[in-house]
Amino acid sequence: MIDSARGWSMVAATFSLLFLGFGAAYAFTAFFPSLEAEFQASRQDVALIFGISGFLYFLLGALSGAIADSVGTRPVVLLGVLLCGGGIIWGAFAETLWEAYLAFGLGIGVGIGFFYVPAIGAVQRWFTVRRAMAAGFAAAGIGAGTMLMPGIAEVLIDRPGGWRYAYGTIGICVLVLGFVAALNIDDPPSHSIARRAGTGLEGATVGQALGSRGFVLLYLSSLALSLGLFVPFVHLEPYAIDKGLGEGTGVFLLMLIGVGSTLGRFVLASLADRIGRRNALALMYAGVGLMDLVWYWGGNIWALYVFAVVYGLCYGGFVGTAPAVSADYFGTRKLSSIIGWLYTSVAFGTLAGPPLAGRAFDLYQSYDLPILIGAASGLAAAVLVMLMGPPRRWR
């Protein structure tokens, strides 16, 4: 079944699931000042909550992708939703910083780790002609969540109960609405039959893919980019407060990243099908690096607005394009597993980047160094993608 109506319903369900999960994750900057005050913690320590969560949900894609390739997508995705929603609710009752690490690590981290890669991998199997477009539309849920959830979180935090009430409400929504979305995610019938029979699937095995030059370069590019990629998602609100821009400005900037991200998944991911998906991926990586330079050099709020929107455009575009590039280079035989292994690179970058940015601020009272590292990382990632060469055929 190729580019079917059923495939587009899969895109809609995945959009909804990613909206909820990543919206909860990327609303973190709205909670940053409250968590810093609640636990009397340094910025490095608070940022580590996000770092642990991101590390786990990108790292576990390799495991969840392999399980989904073996038993099917739906049961793995349903388990992820239960873990994610339950963990957020637990986090709302955390009394110590260590309990917050456990709750959000096991909840958001393990939960998203079990539904992100399998759901995106399933979408890829329903499409051939408009693969990047479909992946971009599905992944637009991440952008929409980034655009809306920080603002929703800020409103909820201002209600009685503060950040605990906000996280509890978000957790319940993830649990209930995410479960409904997950029930609608599955593999194409042809893939399910071939998986059970062990025949008829095209593409590389996991071992073949991981040993290929294309995968190594794609992995290194993703690792380089991720070192600076999530620094704004964690530190924009405290950055804006430090600069005298007022509370809520950082949240608004993150929402602008979400606006750009949503547009990028619709516009740039679709454009990638026409100009070449690998070339488009390299351009988007370079765009992230260049926008970090705008953030560094920008001397006023308007420069920050430009940074946020264009950064979001590039981020949204490559999140939709990278899985399609993986399918181009390695086929769909073990695609969820391969994407999962690829995303372990992002796990290490996410674990290191935001906490080290917090450490840099604690030491130097400035975010200049991590911003410049982010710029260099994005540009290096673009060069690595261009060195990949053309895809090969797997038999």
Radius of gyration: 20 Å
> Which CATH architecture would you pick?
Up-down Bundle
- The H-and-E topology, N to C, reads as HHHHHHHHHHHHHHHHH
Give the oligomeric state. Answer: single chain
Number of domains: 1
Gross morphology = globular
Average of pLDDT: 86
The share of residues in helices is over 70%
SS element count, helices: 17
- Return the CATH class: Mainly Alpha
Give the low-confidence spans: none
Percent strand: under 5%
* CATH topology type: Growth Hormone, Chain: A
Q: Which structural class matches the secondary elements?
A: mainly alpha
CATH superfamily: MFS general substrate transporter like domains
Reported for the largest beta sheet, the result is: none
- Could you tell me how far the N terminus lies from the C terminus, measured between alpha carbons in angstroms? 21 Å
Number of strands: 0
How would you describe this protein?
With 395 residues, the protein is an all-alpha fold. The protein has a single domain (5-386), classed as Up-down Bundle (Growth Hormone, Chain: A). Helix content is 83%, strand content 0%. It has helices spanning 5-26, 28-39, 43-59, 61-71, 73-91, 97-125, 131-157, 162-182, 189-197, 206-210, 213-229, 231-242, 249-275, 277-297, 301-330, 335-364, 368-386. Helix 7 crosses helix 15 (301-330). The radius of gyration is 20 Å and the shape is globular. It starts with a helix and ends in a 9-residue tail after the last helix.
